[in-house]
Write a structure and sequence with these properties.
heterodimer, A: mainly alpha, globular, B: alpha/beta, Rossmann fold, Alpha-Beta Plaits, four-stranded antiparallel β-sheet
């Protein structure tokens, strides 16, 4: 844990060093806003699958928050580390390299919160009929669901990054992954808008637990036991993906030490 | 006492795929790759005692870096046994990792956009160095490497020499017992190379750390290493004193004489091999053990204004090892 905090400290200093860039990162998460504009104009003619204009606003603003708290881009650093051989340095230290990337993937959150919390307060008090959860218990569950969502995404991204042991450009795998994520998590559009047959399939994928589920908590669309079930499902996915990561990591290391750093 | 590093019959082979040139070749390679085995290191054995400074010599691609990577635990040997501080290095046990360090002159571990001191703090936590130890090590390294004004500047703004000093410091915070150095002076100017060498000597003297280094600069090897391992095409062709190697490869010394009048090469035929002659200045190559006898005879044969006796440049000798395959078995 101390090692993580030391890494976090260094990454946080980098965030401060690149403060303008971080501001731009936050502003560039605009996909939810674009999608919102699209749906607002469609919903002018009446609600779509139960979504009226206010509900679209509530949904996409929540998606914006969830994406800001769970979006991560460390795979680019991982890619260059592995291609340029910096991984060798990390392997010769008494610390699993995953800790370093965990630090990168958390370091910008405090700054993001600094911008998101006032934004959320403004939204709740000024947008009529937003109907976001504001009681402490729901907010706590929302934060817990963000932790689960972050963990699922982090382990997936890290495991994809590790495929660099075998393939030259894991970033192209990541492109395919991002396509799947955007479509099936609820980031691009609410999953309720899919035909029921597809929704059944989506229930068996981990992606909905990284976006649709936290958004549902914040927008008051899921209650009681269903929330706890969702959080449990998140952790089942975390464990499953962790298992895959361990397997890939062990085999990858074996290959790395066989074919060269 | 058992040696700190024991390597027995170490071999490391790689499979690399061959790519044929041109588009058709790429297409063929896409569907069926041809593999070729590269024998990077083959049947190498040696032992190194604690506190030794040993240089690896060999042309590019000889297997020096591969050997260092196997010793430090990055590469798994194809066959053979290896023991470093009692550990099989490729297990990368954390108790093993705390005793070694690897510095690669061509790569950097410092965080590029932050001052080096930030990277040091990260290493301090990773190696779990206590506050007291950290202060003591930092004080020593700051003095020895003259890090004063350098630590709080962003790494990207440092000169190559300053950066190398910080790299060394970052690699030594945990007081490793063994230093693996791959080209630690590459790209540095002559003064800075000398500084790094002095530092390594002093560090070895103070802490008795073992140092294994590869370098293209013979001056590094001559200044630091009493013992050298010469590797060529993956095989160990020499293991022993640098001085003995020089005697074996170059059993001659050079006698330079200056005479009052210009000389002809034929006049020296009975004294030794004429290496150069420019008017009154002549350089002769003479077998080592006969040097003084030949010099005395020269004085009797000619009026001589000046004489100097010197060893051939080590650079030249090592170059000959590889171009003329002098040590190949």
């Amino acid at each position: 844990m101390r090692k993580y905090f030391a890494e976090f400290r260094a990454c946080w200093n980098l965030v401060i060093e690149y403060r303008l860039q971080v501001f731009i990162w936050i502003l560039t998460i605009v996909l939810p806003l674009i999608m919102l504009a699209v749906w607002l104009s469609i919903a002018e003619g009446g609600p779509v699958a139960g979504y009226d204009r206010t509900r679209f606003i509530a949904y996409y603003l929540a998606a914006l928050i969830v994406r800001n708290m769970t979006g991560m881009w460390f795979i680019w650093e991982m890619d260059s580390d592995m291609r340029l051989g910096n991984l060798s340095f990390r392997l010769l230290k008494p610390m699993n390299p995953i800790v370093h990337y965990m630090a990168i993937a958390t370091s910008s959150r405090p700054i993001r919160l600094l911008i998101l919390i006032p934004m959320a307060i403004v939204a709740v008090s000024w947008v009529p009929g937003l109907n976001w959860a504001t009681d402490p218990l729901s907010l706590l569950l929302f934060v817990l669901s963000l932790v689960g969502a972050w963990s699922i995404l982090f382990l997936m991204q890290y495991t994809i990054g590790l495929t660099a042991f075998w393939i030259t450009r894991p970033l192209s795998v990541n492109d395919a992954w991002f396509f799947l994520y955007s479509l099936t998590s609820g980031y691009l559009m609410p999953l309720d808008l899919f035909p029921p047959a597809i929704r059944v399939v989506l229930d068996y994928l981990p992606f909905r637990y990284t976006m649709s589920f936290p958004v549902a908590i914040l927008t008051n669309r899921v209650e009681g036991l269903a929330i706890l079930q969702g959080i449990a499902m998140q952790w089942i996915w975390v464990l499953a993906i962790y298992g895959v990561y361990r397997l890939v990591w062990k085999r990858g290391l074996r290959r790395y030490s066989a074919v060269g750093a | 006492m058992t040696p700190q590093i024991v390597v027995r019959n170490l071999s490391k082979f790689y499979e690399v795929h061959q790519k044929e040139p041109g588009f058709a070749g790429s297409l063929r390679a896409f569907f069926r790759r041809k593999y070729e085995t590269v024998r990077a290191v083959e049947d190498v054995s040696f032992e190194i005692r604690e506190g030794e400074i040993v240089g690896f010599l060999g042309p590019n691609g000889a297997g020096k870096t591969t050997t260092l990577k196997v010793l430090s635990g990055l590469l798994h040997p194809t066959s053979g046994e290896i023991s470093v501080c009692g550990f099989r290095s490729f297990d990368r046990h954390s108790a093993f990792l705390r005793q070694i360090t690897l510095v690669m002159g061509q790569k950097n571990q410092l965080i590029w956009d932050l001052p080096a001191s930030e990277s040091f703090l990260v290493n301090r936590a990773i190696y779990e160095i206590s506050h007291g130890d950290y202060l003591a090590v930092m004080k020593e390294l700051t003095d020895l490497l003259d890090l004063g004004g350098v630590l709080n500047k962003q790494v990207r703004k440092l000169s190559l020499g300053e950066r190398m000093k910080c790299e060394l410091a970052a690699a030594l915070l945990h007081r490793p017992k063994i230093l693996f150095l791959d080209e630690p002076t590459i790209g540095l100017d002559v003064t800075m190379q000398a500084r790094v060498r002095d530092f390594l000597l002093e560090y070895n003297r103070r802490h008795g750390s073992t140092i294994l280094l590869t370098s293209h600069y013979m001056a590094d090897v001559v200044a630091l290493c009493k013992r050298v391992l010469v590797i060529d095409h993956g095989k160990l062709v020499y293991d022993g004193d640098l001085d003995a190697l020089i005697e074996r490869i170059a059993p001659v010394k050079y006698i330079r004489i200056v005479t009052p009048r210009p000389m002809q090469a034929s006049e020296f035929s009975q004294f030794g091999e004429v290496r150069s002659i420019e008017g009154p200045k002549t350089m002769l190559a003479v077998p080592r053990e006969q040097t003084s006898a030949v010099a005395a005879r020269l004085f009797q044969a000619f009026p001589i204004e000046d004489v100097t006796i010197e060893d051939p440049e080590v650079e030249e000798i090592i170059g000959r090892i590889f171009t003329e395959k002098l040590l190949s078995r």
